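Query structure, 428 tokens:
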């Protein structure tokens, strides 16, 4: 088929899907379709409650399955009878290990693992603290700023760019292309979006090709250098590129929402914000865990049955999908008492599924936890007078959840003096 033919077929399919979601959501009140419409994106939690009332595993309108149950989601994510794709499906491009089953998944994940070990991540602490301090210096001198653009987004971007060893000259382009590629996590929205994705992907491939060359001749203390040093029978050039793009996108599109969702939740629960400000070092990591449970940045994932099987009394056929609604499982009343209440003092009796479960359990979670904990510690210590100031705009997305803009102001009378920074301190 010609390029034009392909584009038209794709556009027809995309707009057909949009129309079908609208019909099912607005007219038939289908809960899964409503999760994709604006009111459901703004607040999916009441819809999860409706779905929960229908049982632990239910059929979707397009013949797949969905679960809101913590027990079932956890079990499916750990069950080796499920995978992330059918083996006879050949992907259109070389896939990263997020979308591969063992044994390839195991081989590739193992290569990336050392960079995210607890010891390696502890080594990034100084760099994260310095970046946080610099960003807060700038924000504090501005007084009023967008928490997302001014703080939550640049932090993970700086950290992952550094970990990958991206030279400074390429960093801005990386940030731009990475954000566009990351937006595909929530599906392709329009033909213009497709064009942007193709262009960004080509640009990023080129930057990586140059970077691989550079690190072959001048190795550094970064992930790319260790990947190019691995022998070709352990990782091909294509796989290496796919892995770097995965790390880039995972580093960009998730931690930003964890930090922003945390600030949004805390500023909406003044007593808890005050408690955190009174003891930032003691409570920041608890606050991070409760945000991960209560309003996780990744709301869902899915698995494909690799064989016919039985689950929760239902017969599933090979190839059928189970959508595991992480955001719902994290509020399962069978696991969490009073699940809709945001409470940073909550004792976590079961681990939330914000980072998934099983063999695809988030590789970057120690890094994300550390970044978010330092971010909250320093925000609370330096800006106890932080308050919302302007219109909150949430992302237009179903899988990824978080604010696009969160305007805040720093009330000058309440700022404190505890500063970890190297940089100059602007007047508060
Ligand atoms: C708050 C921040 C983050 C959240 C909520 C998050 C969430 C997740 C989830 C839910 C998965 C599993 C997807 C599935 O099971 O299908 C995942 C996988 C992954 N994440 Fe994260 N992530 C975060 C931060 C990061 C960071 C900072 C990195 C690295 C820089 C990272 C790297 C990865 C990788 C490489 C995988 C694939 C693991 C595998 O397939 O074995 N993530 N993440």
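Result returned for the query:
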């Amino acid at each position: 088929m010609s390029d034009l033919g392909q584009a038209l077929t794709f556009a027809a399919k995309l707009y057909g899907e949009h129309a079908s979601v609208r019909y099912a959501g607005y007219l038939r009140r289908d809960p899964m379709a409503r999760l994709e419409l604006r009111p459901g994106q703004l607040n999916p939690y009441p819809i999860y409650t409706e779905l929960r009332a229908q049982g632990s595993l239910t059929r979707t309108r397009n013949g797949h399955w969905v679960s809101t149950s913590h027990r079932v989601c956890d079990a499916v994510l750990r069950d080796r009878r499920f995978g992330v794709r059918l083996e006879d499906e050949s992907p259109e491009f070389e896939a990263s290990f997020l979308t591969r089953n063992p044994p390839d998944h195991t081989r590739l994940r193992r290569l990336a693992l050392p960079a995210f070990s607890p010891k390696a991540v502890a080594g990034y602490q100084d760099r994260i603290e310095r970046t946080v301090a610099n960003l807060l210096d700038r924000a504090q001198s501005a007084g009023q700023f967008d928490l997302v653009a001014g703080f939550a987004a640049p932090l993970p971007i700086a950290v992952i760019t550094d970990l990958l060893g991206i030279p400074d000259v390429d960093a801005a382009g990386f940030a731009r292309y990475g954000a566009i590629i990351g937006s595909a996590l929530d599906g392709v929205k329009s033909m213009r979006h497709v064009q942007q994705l193709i262009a960004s992907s080509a640009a990023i491939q080129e930057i990586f090709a140059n970077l691989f060359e550079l690190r072959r001749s001048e190795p550094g203390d970064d992930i790319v250098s260790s990947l190019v040093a691995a022998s070709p029978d352990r990782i091909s050039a294509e796989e290496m590129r796919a892995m770097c793009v995965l790390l880039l996108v995972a580093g960009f599109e998730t931690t930003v929402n964890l930090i922003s969702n945390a600030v949004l939740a805390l500023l909406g629960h003044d007593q808890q914000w005050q408690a955190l400000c009174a003891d930032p070092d003691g409570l920041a990591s608890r606050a991070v865990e409760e945000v991960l449970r209560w309003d996780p940045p990744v709301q869902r994932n899915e698995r494909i049955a690799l064989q016919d099987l039985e689950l929760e009394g239902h017969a599933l056929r090979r190839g059928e999908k189970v959508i595991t609604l992480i955001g719902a499982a994290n509020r399962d009343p069978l696991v969490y008492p009073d699940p809709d209440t945001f409470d940073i003092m909550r004792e976590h009796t079961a681990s939330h599924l914000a980072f998934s479960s099983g063999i695809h359990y988030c590789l970057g979670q120690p890094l994300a936890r550390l970044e978010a904990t330092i971010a909250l510690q320093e925000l609370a210590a330096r800006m106890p007078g932080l308050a919302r100031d302007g219109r909150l705009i949430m992302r237009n997305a179903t899988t990824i959840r978080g604010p696009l803009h969160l305007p805040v102001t720093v009330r000058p009378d309440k700022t404190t003096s505890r500063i970890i920074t190297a940089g100059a301190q602007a007047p508060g």
